[in-house]
Write a structure and sequence with these properties.
- The chain is an alpha/beta fold and about 150 residues long.
- It has one domain: Trna Endonuclease, Chain: A, domain 1.
- Helix content is about 45%, strand content about 20%.
- It is built from 5 helices and 5 strands, in the order ααβββαβαβα.
- The protein has a 5-stranded mixed β-sheet with strand order 1-2-3-4-5, with helices on both faces.
- β2 and β3 form a beta hairpin.
- It is globular and about 40 Å long.
- The relative contact order is 0.16.
- This is Restriction endonuclease type IV Mrr domain-containing protein.
- It comes from Paenibacillus rhizosphaerae.
- InterPro entries: Restrct_endonuc-II-like, Restrct_endonuc_IV_Mrr, tRNA_endonuc-like_dom_sf.
- One of its GO terms (molecular function) is DNA binding.
- One of its GO terms (biological process) is DNA restriction-modification system.
């Protein structure tokens, strides 16, 4: 089931060949931001498609600012250290306490090693699906808890 959901996320949010990168590019970012807010409890903001220096999501928590980047990729093209470097650079520049990169696919071994030393969490497609399913279950439980008894 998780594999099917992961593939579905990729196909839902991938850019079609020839499609302008900025055109509708905030859908995946908004999906990731909504999930992070539900799971991590902060307040998220999706940055504009331009002038964000690579950062897609700002998350404000009681612990401080976290910066996120969302990459829609399939397993055949694993995400390398580049997006992690962008997040780290902006963390330093903006004084953020942490960051994350989320993808529908996988990360290279080098990406995991690079992120491990920088307080940057990596959410591969499997972990993203687990968060998604978990956030949906939590929302359903919350609705059940607060619904009037019948």
């Amino acid at each position: 089931m998780k594999e099917t959901l992961k593939i579905g996320l990729y196909h839902r949010y991938k850019k079609e060949q020839g499609e302008d990168k900025d055109e509708g590019s905030l859908e995946f970012e908004a999906f990731v931001a909504e999930m992070m807010e539900a799971v991590r409890g902060g307040r998220t903001y999706v940055t504009r498609a331009s002038r964000n220096y690579g950062i897609d999501i700002e998350e404000h928590t009681d612990h401080g600012l976290y910066l996120g980047l969302a990459v829609c990729a399939d397993d055949r093209n694993p995400v390398d250290y580049g997006p992690i470097a962008v997040v780290h650079s902006q963390m330093v520049k903006r004084g953020a306490v942490g960051g994350y990169v989320a993808t529908t696919g996988e990360f290279t071994a080098g990406a995991y090693q690079y992120a491990d030393e920088l307080n940057i969490e990596l959410y591969n497609g499997d972990r993203l699906v687990e968060l998604w399913v978990g956030s949906e279950a939590a929302e359903e439980e919350e609705r059940t808890e607060f619904s009037p008894a019948t």
